[in-house]
Amino acid sequence: MKRSSVDVAVIGGGGAGLVAAAGTAALGAGTVLIERNRLGGECTWTGCVPSKALLHIARQVANIEKSRQLGVQIDEPQIDFSAVMDSVRSTRRRIFEDSETPERLKNLGIRPLHASARFLDRQTLRIERNGRQREFTFRSAIIATGSRPFIPDIPGLDTVDFLTNETLFGIDRLPERLAILGGGAVGVEMAQAFSRLGSRVSLICHDDQLISEFDPAASSVLGNVLAAEGVDVFLRSTIGSVRRTEHSLDAEIIGDGNPWRLGMDGLLIATGRVPNTGSLDLDAAGISHDRNGITVDRHCRTNIRHILASGDVTPAPNQTHVGENMSKAAAINAVARLPIWKHESEVIPRVIYTDPEIAMVGRSTRDLNDSGARFDTIDFPIDRIDRAVTEHDTTGFIRVHHRFGKVLGATIVGPRAGEMIVEYAIAMKHGLSLADLSTTVHPYPTMMLGARRAADQIFFRALKPWMVRGVQLLYGYNGDLPDYIGTRTIV
C-alpha cells in the first residue's frame, strides 16, 4: 500500500477544516485536507448559508405587507416555491465557488483529497476512496469532521419520510402543513421562513420556552411574533409517535394535556446535532472522546498533544464562528507543536436570525440568578432608537447585565441584533466598561446608537437628587429637578 508523509493532516472540509487548513498552509506546513463528501461542509450546503438565504427571501414577502401599511400599494405576492429554492441553491453555489473549490484551496497551498479517513495509530491515517486505499503519516493532525442531525427515537419515524437540515433545501414543493420538532435556532428560523412563504406551521418544543439558552424575555418576544404570524407554538410538548396515512403524515403530540393527533404534509426534525466521530476509529489513536465529541483543552489539543480538534466535532457550541475561532488556534498550535494560541471560549456571541433577530453574549439572566451573582441590569427598548422608529421596526429591547459598569452579559432583540451584539463582545473581551461605550461617539441615526444610549443609563442611574441640589446650591441654579433623577426610568 502506498504511504506518504505530510506535515499536517486536516480531516474534514467544512468551515472549521477549511480555516484550519488555510492556517497551517499559510504558516508553511505541508497540508492535506481530507473530505469524504463536499468541500464547504454543513454550513455552506445545508446550514448557515441556505437557511439565511431562505430567511432573506421570506423577509421580502413580509416586507410587502409592511409596505402596504406605509402607503405603498403592492399586489398580493405569488410564491413560486421551486424558484425560491433554486435561488437558495444558487446562493450556496456562489459562496462555494468564491472560496471553497479544490482549485481555490490549491492556490492557498492546500492539497485537497476527496476520501474518507480513519486512524491506524497516533501517527498514521488510512484514507479510502472507491475501494482504493493509501496511508499518510503526519506530524500533526486536526480533526474537524463536524456534526450531523440528531434523530430522536420516535416510534414510526423510521417508516416515514421526514426532513432534516440536510434534506430540507433539496425540496421543491412547499408543504401545505409543516410540523417542526425542536425549538432551537433551526426550528424557530425555519418556522418563520416557511410560515411567511405560505405553509401552516406547527412548532413543537420540548422545553418551557423557545431557544432555551437565551433570556426568557427574548424567547417571549419571539414566541409572540411567531404566533402573530400564524405559527402554532406548542411548548412542553413532543411527538410520541408518527405514521403515514393515505395522503399525509399523522403525529401523536404529547404535551401538558391529553395526547392529540396532528396532521401534516411535512415533518422537519430539528432536535440538535451529534458529532461525526464514528468512522474515524479514534480509539486506534488513543484519542479521548464521548457522546458529546472529542475532548480538547483551551488550545484545541486532544489528550494526544499533536492531534487537535475544532468545531462541531468537539463539545463546543455548534456555530460556524466558534469552529473558525477554534481552527485558528488549532492551526497555530499544530504548526508550532506548542500551546501558543488559546481558543476564545468565554466571550462567544450567539445569534438567532429570525425577524426580529435575537443575539446574546456572556451570561444570561437565568445563569446569573442561578449562580447567586450580584449584578445590575439595564433595559433599553428598541422603540427608543430613532433608526428603528424611522424604519417602523421597533420590536425588541437591549438588556445589559453589569457589575459596577463591567459588562457580564448582554441580550439584544431587534433589527440587526447580530451586528449590534459585537460591541458588547468587544467590551467583554477587552475589559471596556459601559462608561467607555457611553463616551464613544456613535453615528446618528444608527441602530448601534442604541448601545450607547443603553450605556448612558449608568450615569443617569448614578445621579441622585441630593447631587443635583448640591450643584444648584453651589452655583445658585434654580431649575426644576427632572422626573428621571433618582429613578430607573429610560431617558
Describe the structure in your own words:
The chain is an alpha/beta fold and about 500 residues long. It is built from 16 helices and 23 strands. It has helices at about 15-25, 40-45, 50-70, 80-100, 100-105, 165-170, 185-195, 215-230, 280-285, 320-335, 365-370, 385-390, 415-430, 435-440, 450-460, 465-475, and strands at about 5-10, 30-35, 110-115, 115-120, 125-130, 130-145, 145-150, 175-180, 200-205, 230-235, 240-245, 250-255, 260-265, 265-270, 275, 290, 295, 305-310, 350, 355-360, 375-380, 395-405, 405-415. Strand 12 and strand 13 form a beta hairpin. Helix 1 (about 15-25) packs parallel to helix 10, helix 3 (about 50-70) packs across helix 4 and helix 3 packs across helix 7 (about 185-195).
